[in-house]
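2024-03-11 09:14:02 DEBUG pipeline.ingest accepted 1 chain
2024-03-11 09:14:02 DEBUG pipeline.ingest length=190
2024-03-11 09:14:03 DEBUG pipeline.predict start
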Amino acid sequence: MPKNKFVISVDTNKIETQEYALNMGAHIINDVFGGSEDLFFLTKKFKTGLILMHTPAPPKTMQKKIHSYNNVVQDIKKIFLQKIKQLEKIKIPSSKVWFDPGIGFGKNLKQNIEIMQKINQFKFKGYGLLLGSSRKSWISFIDKSETNQRLGGSIASALYCYQKGVDIFRVHDIKETSQSLKIFEKLCSK
């Protein structure tokens, strides 16, 4: 397989794994804990990309943190703006960074919906925005469904957030989501 035929993103929050992945040629590190200064220095060294997700706590305890927000959108936005200050200090190009508000990670249904309704507030100049809402349990709270029955809700959230400026979607149903976005874009064109 030719080098760089695909963009490789590695999901990890462990600095040793992040460094190993970058040494092995990974193009992007996706850190569910929003990255660290060590990771920022590594990505600068390797000139690679970053996906910085918001989560209030590790997976085992994150859902206990749903009451810790004063205002879920403003609280996450504040954290992302602090990350931007760190990134600018280290001189990481904004074009190499995407922010992910972490749908389902330490948020309840109301908070997830509010984040998606106001997702454009996480669109910072020069930085990318990523949404991972595909097949998540928030859909089942609205329309009782098993994980493999959530295509409609996944596509609905993708289309809604696409028109609000989301750049990348983390999805399970790639062909169907891609097709829906192409059709949606064509229908919206003048």
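2024-03-11 09:14:41 DEBUG pipeline.report The two ends are 40 Å apart (CA to CA).
2024-03-11 09:14:41 DEBUG pipeline.predict end
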